[in-house]
Amino acid sequence: MSLPARVLVSKIFVFSTFVYVCNCTWITSDQVKLIQNILNNFVWNGRHKVQQATMYLSVLLGGLNMINIQNVLHSLHTKWMVRLQGHWAVLVMNYLE
Asked: What is the mean pLDDT of residues 19-32?
């Protein structure tokens, strides 16, 4: 399987599952690092040839457009913070009191 195909497979199968799990449970930083290492090893077949910072860049900038699990997790948390500031904030604050 080619390198772009492995990146695509990791996006299709891992990304959707990861987002679902993160919406249902809390993921620790150790688990995030483990998942990212598994993805990197799958994409590179065990031997890394490019720096990780370059790997996450878009294809137009010379990268592979690979998923950065930590950034995905931060965006999901930010999304929940925005939701909590709306109508749900009143319910959560009443529950916490």
From this structure: 85
